[in-house]
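User: Need the bound-state model for L-homoserine:
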Amino acid sequence: MTGKMLQIGLVGLGTVGTGVYETLCRNHDLLEARAQIPFEVRRVAVRRLDRPREVEIAPELLTDDWHDLVEDPNIDIIIELIGGTTEAYRLIKAALEAGKPVVTGNKAVLAEFGGELFRLSGEKGVPLYFEASCGGGIPIVQSLQNSLICNNVQSIVGIINGTSNYILTSMREKGTSLRDALESAQKLGFAEADPTFDINGWDAAHKALILAAVAYGIPLKPDKISVYGIDRVESVDQHFAGRLGYTIKLLMVIKHHTETDQLELRVQPSFVPLNHILSKVDGVFNAIAVKGDIVGETIFYGRGAGKNPTSSAVIGDLVLAMRERRHPDFHTGFRPYAKNLEVLPISETVTPYYVRFRVQDSPGVIAAIASVLARYEIGISRTSSTFSTTDGKGLTWCNLVFMVHECKWGRLKAALKEIGRVPNIDRHPVVFRIETFND
Ligand code: HSE
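Assistant: Bound-state model below.
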C-alpha cells in the first residue's frame, strides 16, 4: 500500500452516520487492504456537540460546523449524511466548489437540487456519489452505471421504500395499525426523521427520479412524477387483495414506451399478484427489477433501509471515491448525457384496476355502477363485496369491489366522476392499480 493517506470528513452522526463511522473503525484494515489506499477519518461534523453518542469518538474529532471540514485543505473527501435539503445542498455545493468529492445518501436533496449539483460536479470535474440514496444496501446505482451499461433499460419496477413496506407487511400479517407500525419502523431506524415522505410516497418518488435519471441519462424531473402513498391503504383493501389473489405493495414504476419515446413514471400502492416475486418481498426489504434489452430480466433484493445496510452502500462509494481521487482523469460520477425524455401523462397510462365503492345497500346500485362502466367501455373482470353493516343513523352500507380490465386512467377517472353522482354511492371510491408485469 503506497501513497498519501486520504483524509475523510464525515458530516452527520445520526443512524447512518454512526453506522458508517463504526464500520470504518471496525473494518479499517480490511478496507485499506482491499482499496490499497491508506485513509483515516479526520473530522466529524455534528449538529450538537453535547448530544450523547452511540459510538465512541475522540472529542477533538468533533465540530459543530461543517465548514471546518470543507475548508480544511487536508480533507480529501466529504461524506454527507445530515438529511434534509437546505443545509445539505449548501454543504454539497461548497464541497464540490472546494474540489472535494462528495458521497451522499440524501435522495431528497438530489431530487430537489440534483440538476444543479450534478451540473456543478461536471463543470468542476469533482464527482458526487449517491449509491446509498436508493435501495439502502442494494447496489443499484453502480449496477446501472457500470455492470448494465450496455443496456437500453426497458423498465425498472420495484419496492423502494423500506418503511412503507415494513408497515404494509405488519398491517397485513399482524393487523397492526399504520401508526403503530410506523412507530416501530422509527425505533428500528428505517423511517426518516420526519416520516411524512415515507408515508406519502415521496421518499420512493425521490429514489425513482434518481434511478430514472441514471438509467436514461436524463436530468431529474421532480414535477413530472405521479405519486400516491400508503396512507390510502385500509385493512379492508388488504383483506380484499388477499381474497382475490394479490397483496398491496408501494410500487415504483419506470417504463420506457419506445413507440412514443415516453417515460412512464409513477409511485403508488398497487395490487401485486401473489405468484409474482415482488409479492414475497416483505418487511424492510426492497427489490428492484431492471429489464434491459441485452441482459433481459434482473432483480436486486436486500434491506432497503437501516444503519448497517445503508452504511455498506456509503462505504462502497467511499472506496470508489478514494480510488478515483487517485486517478482523477476518470470518474464515474453521474452526468446527464441524453436529451430530455417526455413523461407519459398519467391519464394515458394503462393498467387494470381495483375499485372499491362504499354504497348504501339498495336495489339497483350494482347495476348503476356497471352501466356507467359499460358506457365508458370499461370491462369488469371480477366483483366482490362485504356483508352490509348499519350505521348510527340506521343506514345500511356495504363495500362493492370491481376489478376492471386494462384501461387508460383518464377514462376510468371520468367514469368514476359520473358514478359519484349516482345516489347512494360514496363519492370517493378507493382505487388501486393492478400490476400485470406483462411487458
Ligand atoms: N426511510 C427510507 C426507507 C430510508 O424507509 O426506505 C432508506 O432510504
